[in-house]
Amino acid sequence: MVNKKITITIFTSDYSVFTILRIAEERYMQMKQTSKKEQTRKRIIEATIEGVKQHGYGGLGVDAIAKSAKVTSGAFYGHFKSKKEAFEAATLSGMVDLVDGLSYWRDTKGDSWLVPFIDWYLDIEHRKDICGGCALPGLSVDVSRSEKEVHVAYESQLVQAVKIITSGLPGSNTNKKKKIAWSILSTLSGAVIMSRAVDDEKIASEIAEAAKQKAKYLMTEK
């Protein structure tokens, strides 16, 4: 009688361990599938950002996005209903990268972080990096032609970017600092667009240098 009870207890214990392991394995597989799905979505978004920056929204199709993301067109539609929806997600992602980048400069470069940020932004390496550069000069023109949802996604992060720049400016007049922040950001992005549009690198450098001086001058206004 004692042995029988012990046998039943051992069986029940073994079964519990097996069940726990099976559940753990199922959860792991679910997490793995979710992670893979998120990675695929991320690749599609990144491919959309790079494609629009390089070819413009009108010059980019779903097949090209899918090919760049290394997925099928069917897989693309498993994540997004249309190119427009993918562009909305891409715009938000690109602008979030801008906000994250500004946050990084603010948090790691000290109180005068805006000066090295301006230098980096207008440096030739960033100006030449059309696909990997800032979303502002790369996506703004196409966003301006897009639907309201894209405008909203763009605007929400643009406002956050201006808040970060405002926090890096000297003085106590918040409203004036905010206006200066808008001026600085528009000066930087506009200069990058123009410098990329001209053929002569000497002219491109002159544009960048003039914008750099203007942006730094704006920082001194109180």
UniProtKB/TrEMBL annotation:
Residues 38-98 form the HTH tetR-type domain. PANTHER family: TRANSCRIPTIONAL REGULATORY PROTEIN. InterPro entries: Homeodomain-like_sf (IPR009057), HTH_TetR (IPR001647), Tet_transcr_reg_TetR-rel_C_sf (IPR036271). It comes from Aliikangiella coralliicola. This is TetR/AcrR family transcriptional regulator. Residues 61-80 bind DNA. Gene3D superfamilies: Homeodomain-like, Tetracycline Repressor, domain 2. Keywords: DNA-binding, Transcription, Transcription regulation. Pfam families: TetR_N.
